[in-house]
Amino acid sequence: KKKSEHCRLLFVGTDWQRKGGDIAFETLVKLEEMGIQAELVICGCVPPSSFSHEKMTVIPFLNRGDEKQRQEMENLFLTADFFLLPTREEVFGFVFCEACAFGLPIITTDTGGVSGAIHNGENGFMLPLSARGPEYAEVIAKIYQNDRRYTELVKSSRAAFDARLNWDTWALSVKKLIAEMLA
After folding, report:
1. How does pLDDT run across 66-122, given as a tens digit for each residue?
2. Are 176 and 170 in contact, with CB atoms under 8 Å apart?
3. How far apart are CA 114 and CA 95, in angstroms?
4. How, if at all, do strands 82-85 and 7-12 pair?
5. What is the DSSP secondary-structure string of 3-17?
6. Angle between helices 21-33 and 133-144 (to 10 degrees)
7. Is 43 helix (H, G, I), strand (E, B) or coil?
8. pLDDT tens digit string along 23-46?
9. Inter-residue contact 1 to 60 (CB < 8 Å)
C-alpha cells in the first residue's frame, strides 16, 4: 500500500455527532491550512449542512449485503491513507479491525474500549478526548510527510489485524476462556 498524492481520510460512522464528525471536518480544514492537500470521505451518515467543503465526499449509506456496494466500501478502505474516527464514545468498534485488515493506519480517540483495538504507534494513534481538529491534523501530517514512518505504520496495522484483530484469533481466545472456566 502506497500513500496517495493527496492525503485521503476515511470517516465511517452512522452518527455524525457521536463519531466526532465535526472534528474530522476540522482536521481536513487544518491539513489544508498546513499546506497538505487532503480530502475527506464520509461514509454512513450525512453531516449537517454547515459542514461542506469542496474536498469532502459524502456517501450516506453502503449496504455490505449488496455485492456492488460491498466492493465500493472495500475500495474506500483500499484507497484511503488514514482511517479517521475522532469518536466521542465507543465500546470497541469493529470498523477498526476492518481498517487494519486493509493496512490502514487509524487516528482516533482514547475513549471507551478503543484501546482494545488500537495500540499507539502499532496500528494508529489515540488522541485525548479533548483533542480537536488541529491536534488530529498534526499527528496525520507528521506521519504522512514521513514516507518511511507511513510505510511502517501500514505494515504494522496489517500485522495487528493478522495477530489479534480477526475472527479466528477471537474464536481461539474464547475457546481458551471456556476451557479454563470448565477446568
Report:
1. 999 999 999 999 999 999 999 999 988 899 999 999 999 999 999 999 999 999 999
2. no
3. 11
4. parallel
5. --SSEEEEEE-S-TT
6. 60
7. strand
8. 999 999 999 999 999 999 999 999
9. no
The H-assigned helical ranges of the chain are 21-33, 67-79, 94-101, 133-144, 147-164, 167-182
Angle 123-127-129 (CA atoms, 0-180°, nearest 5)?
140
Burial bucket for residue 121 (CB in 10 Å: 0-12, 13-18, 19+): exposed
In whole angstroms, give the CA distance from residue 2 to residue 80: 10
Three-state secondary structure call for residue 103: coil
Q: Which three cell numbers stand for residue 111?
A: 475513549
d(C-alpha 114, C-alpha 128), whole Å: 12
Closest CA to 27 of 9, 45, 3: 9
Helices 94-101 and 67-79, packing angle to 10 deg: 70
